[in-house]
């Protein structure tokens, strides 16, 4: 049975970078080529084992372990005649362990092999180094692996197969370090370096990893195209395990795009392939994602069955994080079916270790859903705390987000103090009631009983008002951007969608603009993030003061803002934006910003019958914004309604 921990959640399994294709051997022997082919092992038996490992790693491990044990019994050391053979077997073992997501075992085998194959030009050494780099995940180990890969690349000819293999490993490490910008550069270079042989395995692997990074930054069209190359290669080469993962990744892209029927179909294909491999965790992850997709489109009964199946498989494999993610989805279903108490009990179990045993991306979501469950049962103070924890985790990672976190911590302290004060009042109320009861029994003083009743009523009113205040704060926190006070991305998207519905029903004009502060990164770099915060806050203040009463301005992300202008014809919208653009020029920067000024670029789109969704509406405005950026910035441009627009990685990169 294949057991891959998180295999499908990651980009690909840590598969071998190159499995000695014919073109690579030719390059290795060609005149003027420095450096060896990364995984072109000179032993044909080893190359055959590597090829079979990508199809059935469990079986290959069973064949390799006795061979390794026999050589280990001879106490082979570096330089001995048997050392290259043993190092090569360790490379096969590490590759198979990596495909099975046995990360620790893969790293151990790779380290043993590296102790025997020490020459940086030896293809076995490069093979082992590549496999080791693909099987590290914690921060310190990733930094060390990146340094080792970069050092090895210094000894390879630029653009050689060995350099390309190491470049892919470099991109994988950078992506795991949450540096998608650097990973795209490394993986694109590897993808282009292998473009001469599009159907080769290195090209397919570079495409597969690059697809995952593109998906992570929202470039879905590119992600789908690159993913298709991985699928084509796996189908052509009978690589069932890689095909299963590639199909799963395609489902993830469709899921991120909101195309849930297509996602369910791809997850189902991946599940069938996992069944053929007896890959229990692959089946479990497919069931988990199909459950999630059915939940998003409201097929709750189907979602319950699939998540229950996934939990059973995860429990059998002792995969706690997968089990808890399935449990979280089941809790969401309970909420959707109007059972917040049952959802709360399930989410409390998921957070029994405050998310320490969960993937970071999931922890924030669990807090958000538990906030809704707490609100559903009337625990507004607890809901408020969970919503704040969600906000803290969701925005962690940048200096601005850390500033928000500090503000949240201060507010939490005030809230905790208020809750403690309420608890003290509750204790006083209880004591007062007890005293009143004893006094009534002993003295039967009606006046004392009446006075206690007045106190009880007053305190109950106080607690009711406190609960209402907590609920109001909870709703505000869920819909407001902390730094600027404007509607956050979720809220402005809701308002824009509502405005589109109203405009369509009443046949009234609607104009939408996507705004971007030019060269904002330079303000942060030269003046500090405090100055950047000030610029964002000043822009928000100017926007609120200068726009019409019906207009809505919200923070779309970073230095981007979305402006919705219901009832505004294009001419009026352009006048408003020109006025806003002019006023933004008055934002003052510190002396360290000599030569800089705050300017605004805007892309405008007018609602029409050809626009079916908010995504299409925003895509038109975004294309116009790209035109404004490309034509010199500090401009307002209108979308061309005759052209269909999509966001491309190239255009967004140029705009930045």
Compile the SSE list and pairings.
Layout: H1 22-29, H2 44-53, H3 57-72, H4 83-99, H5 103-116, H6 123-133, H7 139-153, H8 161-176, H9 180-193, H10 201-216, H11 220-237, H12 240-257, H13 260-276, H14 280-296, H15 300-316, H16 320-336, H17 340-350, H18 360-376, H19 380-395, H20 399-443, H21 446-479, H22 489-506, E1 510-517, H23 520-527, H24 529-546, E2 552-557, E3 560-566, H25 570-584, E4 600-606, H26 614-630, E5 636-638, H27 649-655
Parallel strand pairs: 4-5
Antiparallel strand pairs: 1-3, 1-4, 2-3
Would you kindly provide a written description of the structure presented here, covering whatever features stand out?
The protein is mostly helical. It folds into 3 domains: 1-237, Serine Threonine Protein Phosphatase 5, Tetratricopeptide repeat (Alpha Horseshoe); 399-479; 489-655, 2-Layer Sandwich (Alpha-Beta Plaits), CATH 3.30.70. The chain contains 27 helices and 5 strands. It has helices spanning 22-29, 44-53, 57-72, 83-99, 103-116, 123-133, 139-153, 161-176, 180-193, 201-216, 220-237, 240-257, 260-276, 280-296, 300-316, 320-336, 340-350, 360-376, 380-395, 399-443, 446-479, 489-506, 520-527, 529-546, 570-584, 614-630, 649-655, and strands at residues 510-517, 552-557, 560-566, 600-606, 636-638. It has a 5-stranded mixed β-sheet, sandwiched between helices. The two termini are 48 Å apart. The model is unreliable at 1-38, 397-419 and 643-656 (pLDDT under 50).
